[in-house]
Amino acid sequence: MTPPTKSGPRFNNFITVDKVRVIDGEGENLGVMYTREAIEAAAAVGLDLVEVSPNADPPVCKFLDVGKFRYEAQKKANAQRKTQKTQDIKEIKMRPNIDDHDYDVKMRNVNRFIEDGDKVKVTLRFRGRELSHQQLGMDLLKRVQADVAEIAKVEAYPRMEGRQMLMVIAPK
């Protein structure tokens, strides 16, 4: 029965190849050895033989403390996850007969969202008889597109969905 596969690098008896290139604890290259000899040499120093580059030919192994190696790798992954920026979709809702000042306020928000690196979904809602004047809505979305042309690109061009006209813009 084979042992369950563990996540992370293979070490000691889990290394299945016959020969490996060995690097000791100080970073010195000890050359290509049989895996059995390398494990014994690592045990003599009080460390484990850890496979650091399994795709090389022969695989590269290093004398390390496995627990410490896993801990450092986990800390590194957490730090990368922390600095990673996820891209949200912010929504701005308008009406086809929006006033100039209201439009300016909405555009300030659109600009702020785009500078923060988020996508913006501009939703234009038609009510009542406004639905028969869809050209007004299209003109408004073209105006939005022109106003953000320097900092953003249109990802989804204006389209109707029921009583709403939608457009998605993303940072350049």
Describe what is shown at a glance:
By secondary structure, the protein is α/β, with parallel strands linked by helices. Helix content is 34%, strand content 31%. Strand 5, helix 3 (100-115) and strand 6 form a beta-alpha-beta unit.
Write the layout of secondary structure elements.
Layout: E1 19-23, E2 29-34, H1 35-45, E3 48-53, E4 60-64, H2 66-83, E5 89-94, H3 100-115, E6 119-125, H4 134-147, E7 152-161, E8 164-171
Parallel strand pairs: 1-4, 5-6
Antiparallel strand pairs: 1-2, 3-4, 6-8, 7-8
Domain Translation initiation factor 3 C-terminal: 88-172
Function: IF-3 binds to the 30S ribosomal subunit and shifts the equilibrium between 70S ribosomes and their 50S and 30S subunits in favor of the free subunits, thus enhancing the availability of 30S subunits on which protein synthesis initiation begins.
Subcellular location: Cytoplasm
What is the residue-averaged pLDDT? 89
SSE order, one letter for each helix or strand: EEHEEHEHEHEE
Strand portion: 25-35%
CATH H level of the largest domain: which superfamily? Translation initiation factor 3 (IF-3), C-terminal domain
Number of helices: 4
Q: So what's the overall shape?
A: rod-shaped
Name of the level-1 CATH class of the largest domain = Alpha Beta
CATH topology of the largest domain: Translation Initiation Factor IF3
Oligomer: single chain
Query: Which radius of gyration do the C-alpha atoms yield?
Result: 30 Å
| Total domain count | 2
SS-based class: alpha/beta
Distance between the termini: 54 Å
- Report the count of strand segments: 8
Indicate the low-confidence ranges by residue numbers. none
Largest sheet: 4 strands, mixed
Helical content class: 25-40%
CATH-defined architecture of the largest domain: 2-Layer Sandwich
Strand order of the largest sheet: 2-1-4-3
